[in-house]
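Question: Send over one sample?
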Amino acid sequence: MIPSLSIRHFIRNATDYFVLELGEMIPKVRADSIRLEQVVLNLVRITDPFFTTRREAGGTGLGLSISKRIIKNPGGTIFFNSRVGKGTTVTVNLPEG
């Protein structure tokens, strides 16, 4: 998944450092690309609990919970590895399909 222009703009404005690493020869996966972009947006603000850019629209800051459900729905997994002062690595695995 290559982030759309609008999501790249949001990422650039939301964080100082963001890397998307994709392995070689990535197979197609069973997932909704719009929902996957939502996961990426939710992960960019991982360090701000209950942060929401949509409070007036009813945002609750529960993006990570929603992201987990989006990834698990097609049988995927999501893992977090955080190091204080170094950042957080998020690994998302989705089944081929």
